[in-house]
Amino acid sequence: CANDKGTTRPGSFIPLAECSAEIATSVSSFSGRYTCARLLKSQFIRITQPRSQFDVNMDLMSSGMARLRDMATAMNAELKAQNQQLDRMEPELSRVSDTMATQNRQMKILLGSMLTAKKITRLTIIQIRSSKWQAEWVGSTV
Asked: Residue ranges of the T-SNARE coiled-coil homology domain (predicted)?
């Protein structure tokens, strides 16, 4: 049955009075094999069936969007918590970074003096090689 604009929408319900001419034409074309009620039921099924598939698809889309919303909300909460944690850690990390830079400078100074001491020790070992204490010196420095 068509509505007042001449179109049929899935899921639309049109009163019997508006469809009486179409039903009469349809009944006469079926040679009286169908009653008006059965024809009306088949018209109703034909109109509502696409609507039910549309509803199923919309329900699937709605549940997918709800899951997506829940995931986005959870991600937002997690990001807020991590930002707060980073804000609490920032002063401590800054202090640790400064301490590490100071210790690295001190290590470079120590390593530089140790390398110089090792060179001096090797020179000492080379000078003592001719003596009988060579093994003792080599064992203690190397």
From this structure: 48-110
